[in-house]
Amino acid sequence: MTDATFNSNVAAVGRPVRRDIGIKRRYAAERRFRFYGVAAIAVGIFFLFALLFSVISNGYTAFWQTTIELPVKLDEKLIDPSNQRATNPNVLLTANYPLLVRNALAEKLGVSTTDRPAMRDLSKFVSDGVRNQLREMVVANPSLIGTTQTIPVLAGADIDSAFKGQINLDVDEANRKVSNRQVAWMKELADEGVMRQKFNTGLFTYGASSRPETAGLGVALVGSLYMMLIVLVLSLPIGVAASIYLEEYAKKSRLTDIIEVNINNLAAVPSIVFGLLGLAVFINLVGLPRSASLVGGLVLTLMTLPTVIIATRAALRAVPPSIRSAALGIGASKTQMVFHHVLPLAAPGILTGTIIGLAQALGETAPLLLIGMVAFVVGYPTTPMDPATALPVQIYMWANEAERAFVERTSGAIIVLLLFLAVMNIAAIILRRRFERRW
Amino acid sequence: MNLMTERSLEKAVGDKMNAVASTNKMKGDKVSVFYGAKQALFDVDLDIPEKMVTALIGPSGCGKSTFLRSLNRMNDTIEGCRVTGQITLDGEDIYDPKIDVVELRARVGMVFQKPNPFPKSIYENVAYGPRIHGLAKSRHELDEIVESSLRRASLFEEVKDRLHDAGTGLSGGQQQRLCIARAIAVSPEVILMDEPCSALDPIATAKVEELIDELRQNYTIVIVTHSMQQAARVSQKTAMFHLGNLVEVGETEMMFTTPKEKRTQDYITGRFG
């Protein structure tokens, strides 16, 4: 041992010699980890934007619909040739309304009504939905017969797609869905300002239809609304009551342990299993009608309950024990403690959990397939017992259609669904911010 | 023993006279407390004299808080906790099945270690107890209870202009006095205090101690404390706990000047604990 080392050992008594533990390596590891984190977030954001871009670029056109403002002569000779509408109202229901529109269009474009191929092209030019549109108008007000009315009629689906520039006009005429003649008419009407794109209110009001231009989300929106109401009304009180009992009242025992484990497991059960359960219990056993939003709501309630219970229990547990002691210490009963102090403090968490559960239920498709909600429902359901569809189911059904106009409607419906989900999640955040109390 | 000043010594002597005249408000008879299989308190016999301050001292984990909490059955809220023996309030067994625990806790109030006001307004904090016990017939009466409780807790002057501000916005010492006001508002007979000053600075502590001394006129007080000085300053009777046993109990002045037990002497002179 030399003097030098001896001296350094003496110094070490006061201040121990530090071993080289690789400070550089530690910093490098930290930098590396930060990079991984940033990379992971970047990937996530990239995919989010890719999804939004593809959905919006495909779907925004669904909110516009080509319409033609057309002066239609409601010719008595065509609607009610033998003038018997006073005695037989069915005449007004069965009249050939599309013919009126076709004739009006032919007159406008200067096409001879005897030119059969041209007339065939013309009949595809406007949507067959005018039959309903004119019928409703005339039935509601028979005095219109014999007058000429300027009516906005929907263009046919292919014309709509072509007008939006979604059909490649360079393709050989025989292989494309719109003829050169139709394209020429389109240009003529557009130049005149009669044919233009309007906001597609029909997307939100029409029910199911095989014609894309008259297919809408109306029935699905009502069905989803019914189901959300049922889920909210059932899962919130049941879930909160169950959580309060388990968290505040139940003595810890093997039974409560089993219940707890099973609630957590139920939250992870694939939703299609809940659909099967609903089919077996609510439809086969109880005998509720198929395709009804009541059954859908019940199934989604079963699915949402575990989420609500888990969120509520977490919220209750987050209330500090000191608040409970304070309440008990001045002689509040357990129920007073829970309802006066614990529940109000846990409310933001419960609301957030419930809204997130609802949002989950709103987007759920699989269980609804099994209880027959994949249905072609034209008319609005007046009660939750009537057949209905739901937003995600409507998306699923439209996604199976081949026409270009259905493709854009599928994306359009996805945008609507995403907007609803975003609104619900923002509501959850706002509620939590507003009611959160610090202690 | 340098703990006692001349003045407090005189006071303690006066208190001693009181102690003789005083009756026992609460009595513990062979009180044992179990947490599951673990016994935390062994056959404690301790009487709580009326309108006096009884201090429970001893090192951490000695069972003094456990004893305090069994006086208003706050231990009931702990799962697996079991109390044997007998505790009486005015001669009534408080663990009797006929006793309503809610009523008991209204008679035996509690102030906790950490100030725990409700996240509500100052007014609501104090008004809550009278409201659930139906102590006020009218809004006006409730206002009066709130004001007098805050006055007795020497807090009214500081908060009278902001009664409807959040109670959690007060300073730590004010929060603790708010908690005392909240406990007073239901007119308890006994107030239990579990280390009420351990989260407070010396100035706030002095205020709370002063308050305790005033409250003694009307209430029976039991206080758990880690501070020898505090026990000496505020209490008339002191009980020393160690490892779940009651080591020694006596008048505070005697305990701090001529303890009988060696363990008490060692503890109060700071040799352990």
UniProtKB/TrEMBL annotation, chain A:
Its main location: membrane. The chain crosses the membrane at residues 33-56, 225-246, 266-288, 294-316, 337-359, 412-431. Keywords: Cell membrane, Membrane, Transmembrane, Transmembrane helix, Transport. InterPro entries: DUF3333 (IPR024573), MetI-like (IPR000515), MetI-like_sf (IPR035906), Phosphate_PstA (IPR005672). GO terms for molecular function: phosphate transmembrane transporter activity. Belongs to the binding-protein-dependent transport system permease family. CysTW subfamily. GO terms for cellular component: plasma membrane. This is Phosphate transport system permease protein PstA. It is a multi-pass membrane protein. CDD domains: TM_PBP2. The lineage of its organism: Bacteria, Pseudomonadati, Pseudomonadota, Alphaproteobacteria, Hyphomicrobiales. GO terms for biological process: phosphate ion transmembrane transport. It comes from Paramesorhizobium deserti. Residues 221-427 form the ABC transmembrane type-1 domain. SUPFAM superfamilies: MetI-like (SSF161098). The keyword Membrane applies. It is found in: Cell inner membrane; Cell membrane.
From TrEMBL, chain B:
It comes from the Bacteria. InterPro entries: AAA+_ATPase, ABC_transporter-like_ATP-bd, ABC_transporter-like_CS, P-loop_NTPase, PstB-like. Keywords: ATP-binding, Nucleotide-binding, Phosphate transport, Transport. GO terms for biological process: phosphate ion transmembrane transport. It holds the Pfam family ABC_tran. The keyword Acyltransferase does not apply. GO terms for molecular function: ATP binding; ATP hydrolysis activity; phosphate transmembrane transporter activity. The keyword Cell membrane does not apply. This is Phosphate ABC transporter ATP-binding protein. It comes from Paramesorhizobium deserti.
